[in-house]
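Progress note, project year one: complex with flavin-adenine dinucleotide.
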Amino acid sequence: MKKVAVIGAGPTGRAAARTLVENGATVTVFEKEAEGGGLMRYGFPDFRMPASVPKRDTEALQKLGVVFKFGVSLGKDISLADLERDYDAVLLSTGAPVPRQLNIPGERLQGVHQALDYLRASKTNQPMDSGQTVIVIGGGDTAVDVAVSAVKSGATDVTIAFREQEPIALPHEIERAKKSKVRFRGDLQPVRIDAGKPGLAISFQDDSSMEGDSVIIAIGQEKDSAFITKLGLTVNPDGSTNHPNVFVAGGTLYGSDRLAKAIQDGRRVAERILQI
Ligand SMILES: Cc1cc2nc3c(=O)[nH]c(=O)nc-3n(C[C@H](O)[C@H](O)[C@H](O)COP(=O)(O)OP(=O)(O)OC[C@H]3O[C@@H](n4cnc5c(N)ncnc54)[C@H](O)[C@@H]3O)c2cc1C
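Model obtained:
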């Protein structure tokens, strides 16, 4: 029976684990967090995805025979060499966790937060105080999730500023934000953030500016190439690597994208592993 280690219990890793176990493999999933689900557990706000949903998914996989080891981080608690020694194949599905930067002055000022830190704090019952007036930078799903979360946490004046002409988030999520009185302002590219009196002032390319208690940057995430390099891996476009039985899939392979793509990719690479 093939023994497979899956690293990361997000949508990619779970889809892979399911395909593998349903086809007779023995699967152990190593996850650094205390619960499974990846961004569905630690990113999506509760009003869209209560923690009970990924928890049920984990339980369903456990019933199929998948073993989860939570609180175990590859590179810290276990090494790739250990896994290669103990398993027939290793799948890295660790997501795309590196926040994109604006690369403008003031990005590190107090009161400037990264979207995933902000969302994670509220999903772990330690919500950040972002004040009454919140400016969210970015026009995608994450920006909308942050803005609506800020309103639900008591902010009274929330604006999403984005560089496109129209926000790129899902239409029904934009509707939800508008119903929550979130303002959308397009065609805006931030050029600097300054400490105001009090709060922050953010300036844009068209010489306009906004003032707020906090600025939350939600312009997407990228894959962690440094992590992969540190493991000594070079990755091929199909998810195979320079280590014969080590594969990568989902966000780890192509960066941040849609849920359906992560699930599809997890299944695809699992099929590949079943053939080795
Ligand atoms: C706020 C937000 C809202 C979104 N909304 C939507 C939406 O509405 N629709 C949609 O289609 N997509 C949405 N997405 C995108 C979707 O969440 C991703 O496509 C999907 O989660 C990617 O799955 P993944 O398994 O590749 O990565 P992740 O979900 O990031 O899972 C990776 C897992 O690996 C674990 N891990 C990382 N490093 C290690 C390590 N060293 N050792 C052990 N474990 C590790 C992490 O803790 C995590 O559990 C959204 C994303 C965000 C951030």
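The chain is about 35% helix and 20% strand.
Residues 7-13, 30-33, 38-40, 43-44, 73-75, 93-95, 119, 141-142, 145, 250-251, 257-260, 262 surround flavin-adenine dinucleotide (CB under 6 Å).
No further modelling is planned for this target in the current period.
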